[in-house]
């Protein structure tokens, strides 16, 4: 059989001349080598002669093997591939678990930061006892700038057991009367300090109880004092008649009402670990269960109660209201101190005790008590409604008559939301 390499049309080298097969003709029609062949593939005629036996190169002529390159790793040097995907899936499951744990942790922290305080506030707010103290009536003073809190300390024994009654020397009494009447006035100016104003409970004013002539202001709070209005309904003493009596006598509108009994008083003081008070002289009063030395000292709830109740001093009730203002300022400073607010062993009992024993108006909320507390945290001034005389009247007894000019100066400033002028201050 004829050698196919020497068929017609081929040269002895075996390179075909047919156009477009292995090479093209040169531009001049000659046998020029294809440029592509020259660059990328050696010509067969340059490697060996047709028919020549191919020999293996000598050992020394063999080019050295190219060194193996290390396996290239992607993303990071610790990742390995086993070809099954198990490692990748295990890594993804681990990442998902870590992500889920992170999300759950954030949700729990968010609940602790937002939900729990909100729940505690709503729960504490619901514990407050409420009474309809701020009632509208014909001729009631208009709303003024600033805020006025009426703070009433009653002699109610609610919450005290027999042992506490004996220990505190409170005695037994039915109903309730006022031991303390104070106003917290917050002016409508940024640079003015709040003012605690004592209202002498023997203040001689016209009562807001039908059928009663002028009498001591604390009579308006006594639930045993009752009258009948024009519509035939019975009206007895209590928070609403007390507020109305003061508003009509002063022309100042009361915005918030806060009341606390003896049991709550003692509980609040003990919850903050006692308050520091500074009597100027030794005091002893068996009726109030009081026996203390002169000088600054920390008083517990029972001792502080006796301190603010006793009348065994030269000016009796006037000295007592001064001590009540002293005590109230000290209690507020202690209750709003960082060591109390940020100490759960003090702040939680304080909230529980306060919300269980405070009586507020139906429109008041826990935030109003917090506002009252914080308003006095930066410092307060203390005074009393200016007293003009202390006569003894038939069928009434010893009373306190307000100084007409100075008290009106005080009330006018409160009606306008302005600071109380120094000329109206009285010890």
UniProtKB/TrEMBL annotation:
Matches recorded under Gene3D superfamilies: LCP protein
Write out the entry's keywords from A to Z.
Answer: Membrane, Transmembrane, Transmembrane helix
Superkingdom of the organism of origin: Bacteria
Spell out the Pfam families in the cross-references: LytR_cpsA_psr
List where Basic and acidic residues composition bias occurs. 1-20, 35-55, 66-85
Residues covered by region (Disordered):
1-95
What InterPro entries does the annotation carry? LytR/CpsA/Psr_CW_biosynth (IPR050922), LytR_CpsA_psr (IPR004474)
Where, by residue number, does the polypeptide cross the bilayer?
Answer: 98-122
- Write out the biased-composition intervals (Basic residues): 86-95
All copies of domain Cell envelope-related transcriptional attenuator, residue ranges: 177-335
Which family, according to the similarity comment? Answer: Belongs to the LytR/CpsA/Psr (LCP) family.
Put simply, this protein is called LCP family protein
Provide the species name.
Answer: Nocardiopsis changdeensis
